[in-house]
Design goal:
- It is built from 13 helices and 11 strands.
- By secondary structure, it is α/β, with parallel strands linked by helices.
- Strands 1, 2, 3, 4, 5 and 11 form a 6-stranded mixed β-sheet that branches. A 5-stranded mixed β-sheet has the order 8-7-9-6-10, sandwiched between helices.
- Strand 1 and strand 2 form a beta hairpin.
- Helix 2 packs across helix 10, helix 2 crosses helix 11 and helix 6 runs parallel beside helix 7.
- The longest helix has 20 residues.
C-alpha cells in the first residue's frame, strides 16, 4: 500500500511537471472530454521505443478516424502509470506485465486491453539488455553479485529479468544491488561510474553502446522466448463505463502495432519526436516486435519468476487481467 500511494504521488507529479513531453501539449481534462465528435483521452506512457506505434498511429490518423485524440503524458515506468489510470488521471496506460500482475494480485482494478510490445527473442539482438561500461571487469550476469544495477523502476519486469539472467549464469540474484533510474539517465550514470551496470532499453541502449558500453545479457530473452513485455490497459471502472471508447482504442492500437511492425524507418523517425535520441544513432536502434496478440505462455513464465522472487501477495489471475 505504501508503494501504491507513492506511485500515485509520482503519477500526480508527472502529470503536472511533464507536459513538455506530451505530443499534444496537454489540455485534456482528467476525464475524457468530447468535442465535435472527437473524444480526447489521456494516455500514460514511457518515453521509449516501445510506444512508438501509438505516436505513429496518432500521426497517421488511425485514432482520429475513430473519433479519438490521444494526449500522451510520460512517466518513468509502469509502476507510476498504474495508479494514474486507477485514479482517472489517465484513461489508458502502458505498463510492463510485471507491474500489471503486481497490481492485479493486490486487488487493484486494472484490465489489459491491447498488446504493447514484445522481445525480438534473439539473444544479443534484442531491444533491451544488461550493459556495462567499456573496459568493465564485469563480463557476465554472474559478476553482478554485489554490484549496483540500474532499472527504470524497482520490482518491475526489468528487475525480474536481471534476476533471471544472474540466476541462469550461476549467480545469486539476491546479492544484486538494484538502483532506480530513468532510462534516459542511465547512459550518463553508467559512463560516470555511478552504477556498475544498467538494464536499458531502446533508444537509450543505442546511446550507451555509442559510448562503448558492452552487452553482457539479453535479459528479456532469458525470461522467455518472444516475451510479451508490456501491454496497454485501463481501469475496470472505465472499461465498464466507456466500452465504446475502449473498443475504438483497441482497434486503433491494433492498426498502429501492425503499421509499426511493417514500417521500421517511420518508427525510427517518430522516436525522435518524444525521446532524446540523436538522429545519428537512429540506424543503430534495435526495434522490438509489435505482434497483434500477447504471448500468454511467456506471461505465465514471467509470473512464475515473479512468484519465485516474492513480488506477489497472491497469484495474479491472468484470466481477469488479460483481454
Amino acid at each position: 500500500m505504501r508503494r501504491l500511494l507513492a506511485g500515485i504521488a509520482v503519477g500526480a507529479f508527472l502529470v503536472a511537471a511533464s507536459a513538455c513531453g506530451s505530443s499534444d501539449g496537454g489540455g485534456a481534462s482528467d476525464k475524457n472530454s468530447s468535442s465535435g465528435g472527437t473524444t480526447t483521452v489521456k494516455v500514460g506512457i514511457i518515453p521509449i521505443v516501445d510506444v512508438a506505434p501509438v505516436y505513429l498511429g496518432q500521426k497517421k490518423g488511425f485514432y482520429s478516424k475513430r473519433g479519438l485524440k490521444l494526449s500522451m503524458t510520460p512517466a518513468q515506468g509502469g509502476a507510476a502509470i498504474v495508479p494514474g489510470v486507477v485514479s482517472s488521471q489517465f484513461q489508458f496506460g502502458f505498463s510492463n506485465m510485471t507491474s500489471l500482475m503486481i497490481a492485479q494480485s493486490n486487488g487493484v482494478p486494472v484490465k489489459a486491453i491491447a498488446n504493447g510490445v514484445a522481445s525480438t527473442g534473439v539473444d544479443g539482438k534484442d531491444f533491451g539488455a544488461i550493459t556495462v561500461k567499456k573496459g568493465s571487469a564485469i563480463t557476465s550476469a554472474k559478476d553482478l553479485e554485489g554490484k549496483k544495477v540500474a532499472v527504470n523502476t524497482l520490482k518491475n519486469i526489468n528487475e525480474t529479468a536481471v534476476r533471471e539472467s544472474v540466476r541462469k549464469a550461476g549467480g545469486d540474484p539476491s546479492e544484486v544491488k538494484f538502483v532506480e533510474l530513468a532510462f534516459d539517465q542511465m547512459p550518463a550514470a553508467l559512463d560516470s561510474g555511478q552504477i556498475d551496470a544498467a538494464m536499458v532499453v531502446e533508444p537509450a541502449l543505442a546511446t550507451v553502446k555509442s559510448q562503448g558500453a558492452t552487452e553482457i545479457a539479453s535479459s528479456l530473452v532469458d525470461v522467455a522466448k518472444d516475451l510479451t513485455v508490456a501491454m496497454y490497459f485501463t481501469s475496470n471502472q472505465y472499461a465498464t463505463q466507456h466500452p465504446d471508447v475502449v473498443k475504438k482504442f483497441q482497434e486503433a492500437t491494433a492498426e498502429s502495432l501492425a503499421y509499426a511492425d511493417a514500417h521500421p524507418d517511420e518508427v525510427r523517425q517518430i522516436v525522435t519526436t518524444y525521446t532524446k535520441i540523436p538522429a545519428a544513432l537512429l540506424a543503430d536502434v534495435t526495434l522490438p516486435k509489435w505482434p497483434a496478440e500477447p504471448n500468454r505462455t511467456s506471461i505465465e513464465a514471467l509470473q512464475k519468476l515473479g512468484e519465485q522472487d516474492g513480488l506477489f501477495k497472491s497469484a495474479p489471475d491472468l484470466d481477469k487481467l488479460l483481454p
